[in-house]
C-alpha cells in the first residue's frame, strides 16, 4: 500500500479526447479531407478536476478504469504529467473511453463517444480505508449520471460509499453531468443526503429538482438543500458565472473573468477544482467561488480541458479580478 499523503481523490469519468479542427462537412466514402490540426487530450470530468487540483498544489489521486490500449497508456502518462497520483486500473474487458470531437469553422463541436471502461467503475474499485490511512479529506465523484456502475438502479452504490466515507471523516463531493434518460431524482435522490458538496450546472440542477428553466439559482439551491445536500451547493452558470450557497443560507453570485474564450471543454470541471482547492486552503465561500470561476477562466482560454490550467499563483491573480454580482 502506498503511504504518500492524499488530500483529495477524484473518481469517475476518464476519456481520451481526439479533436480535429476545422471540419467542414463529412468526407464522402473513400475520400480524404484535410484539417489544420488533430490533437489528443486528456478529458473526462474526473480527470480534468483531479489534474487541475494537482496543478493547484493539492495532493490528489485519480481513480478510474482505463483499457489495456494506447489510449490507456496516454491517460497514465497524463496523470504523471499533471502531478496527480494514479490509482487508475486497467480493464481487460473494455477499451479506454474516448471521444472523437470535430470542430467546425465557427467553433461548434460535434461528438462521437465510446463509453468503454468507464461503465465498469464501481465502489469496490475504491478502498476508503486506504484513502483514510493516507489522510484523504474529500472524495469527489465526477460525471455521476454517466457511471452506471456507480448509479445502480437507485443510486445506492454511491450512496453507500458516501455514507461509509463520511463515517471515516472523509467529506463527499458530487458532480452530475446531463442525464439524457431523465431519471434524475430516481438515481440521485438517495445520494444527496450523503453529499457534502454538490456541484452541478444550473440546467442539471433545475432538472434534478423538477424546476423550470426560469427558476432562479437561489430557488434551485434551496430545493437541493431540501433534498438533502449537507454543506454547500455550487451551481455552474457558464457566462453568468456561478452561484454558491451554504447550509445556513449564505449565498453569493460571482461573475466571470475577462479572458478570451477559445474552448469551453472542461471549464465546469476546472471550476470544481478551483473551488475545492480554495476550501482546502481555508478560504471562505465567496473567495472559493471566485477561485472556481478563475479556474474556469483558465480552462476556456485554450483548446482542451487542461491546456490553459497553470498553477495556484496565477489562479489567485485571476480570482482577484472577479467581482461578486449584487
CATH architecture descriptor of the domain at 1-24 and 37-136: 3-Layer(aba) Sandwich
* Principal-axis shape: globular
Question: CATH superfamily of the domain at 1-24 and 37-136, called what?
Answer: Ribokinase
State Rg. 19 Å
Order of helices and strands: EEEHEHEEEHEHHEHEHHEEEHHH
Q: Which residues sit in consecutive blocks of at least 5 with pLDDT less than 50?
A: none
Strand order of the largest sheet: 5-4-1-8-9-10-11-12-13
Number of strands: 13
- What is the overall number of helices? 11
Q: Which structural class fits the helix and strand makeup?
A: alpha/beta
CATH topology of the domain at 1-24 and 37-136: UDP-N-acetylmuramoyl-L-alanine:D-glutamate ligase
Mean pLDDT: 95
Largest sheet: 9 strands, mixed
Describe the structure.
It is built from eleven helices and 13 strands. The protein has 326 residues and is α/β, with parallel strands linked by helices. It has a domain at 1-24 and 37-136: Ribokinase (UDP-N-acetylmuramoyl-L-alanine:D-glutamate ligase, 3-Layer(aba) Sandwich), CATH 3.40.1190. β9, α6 (184-188) and β10 (197-198) form a beta-alpha-beta unit. α7 (202-208) crosses α8. The chain starts with 7 loop residues before the first strand and ends in a 7-residue tail after the last helix. The mean pLDDT is 95.
Amino acid at each position: 500500500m502506498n503511504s504518500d499523503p492524499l488530500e483529495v481523490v477524484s473518481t469517475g469519468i476518464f476519456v481520451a479526447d481526439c479533436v480535429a479542427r476545422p471540419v467542414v462537412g463529412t468526407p464522402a466514402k473513400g475520400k480524404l479531407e484535410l484539417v489544420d490540426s488533430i490533437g489528443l487530450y486528456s478529458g473526462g470530468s474526473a480527470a480534468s478536476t483531479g489534474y487541475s487540483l494537482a496543478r493547484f498544489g493539492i495532493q490528489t489521486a485519480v481513480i478510474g478504469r482505463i483499457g489495456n490500449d494506447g489510449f490507456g497508456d496516454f491517460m497514465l502518462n497524463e496523470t504523471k504529467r499533471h502531478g496527480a497520483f494514479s490509482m487508475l486500473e486497467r480493464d481487460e474487458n473494455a477499451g479506454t473511453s474516448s471521444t472523437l470531437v470535430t470542430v467546425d469553422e465557427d467553433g461548434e463541436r460535434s461528438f462521437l463517444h465510446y463509453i468503454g471502461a468507464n461503465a465498469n467503475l464501481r465502489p469496490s474499485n475504491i478502498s476508503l480505508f486506504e484513502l483514510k490511512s493516507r489522510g484523504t479529506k474529500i472524495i469527489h465523484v465526477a460525471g455521476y449520471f454517466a457511471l452506471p456502475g456507480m448509479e445502480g438502479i437507485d443510486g445506492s452504490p454511491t450512496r453507500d460509499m458516501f455514507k461509509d466515507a463520511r463515517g471515516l471523516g472523509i467529506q463527499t463531493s458530487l458532480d452530475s453531468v446531463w442525464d439524457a434518460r431523465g431519471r434524475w431524482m430516481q438515481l440521485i435522490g438517495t445520494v444527496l443526503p450523503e453529499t457534502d458538496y454538490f456541484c452541478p450546472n444550473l440546467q442539471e440542477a433545475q432538472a434534478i429538482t423538477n424546476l423550470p428553466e426560469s427558476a432562479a439559482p437561489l430557488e434551485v439551491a434551496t430545493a437541493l438543500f431540501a433534498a438533502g445536500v449537507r454543506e454547500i451547493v455550487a451551481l455552474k452558470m457558464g457566462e453568468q458565472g456561478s452561484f454558491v450557497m451554504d447550509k445556513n443560507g449564505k449565498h453569493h453570485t460571482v461573475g466571470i473573468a475577462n479572458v478570451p474564450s477559445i474552448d469551453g471543454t472542461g471549464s465546469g470541471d476546472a471550476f470544481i477544482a478551483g473551488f475545492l482547492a480554495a476550501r482546502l486552503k481555508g478560504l471562505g465561500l465567496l473567495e472559493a467561488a471566485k477561485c472556481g470561476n478563475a479556474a474556469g477562466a483558465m480552462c476556456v482560454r485554450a483548446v482542451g480541458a487542461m491546456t490553459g490550467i497553470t498553477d495556484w499563483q496565477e489562479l489567485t491573480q485571476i480570482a482577484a479580478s472577479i467581482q461578486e454580482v449584487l
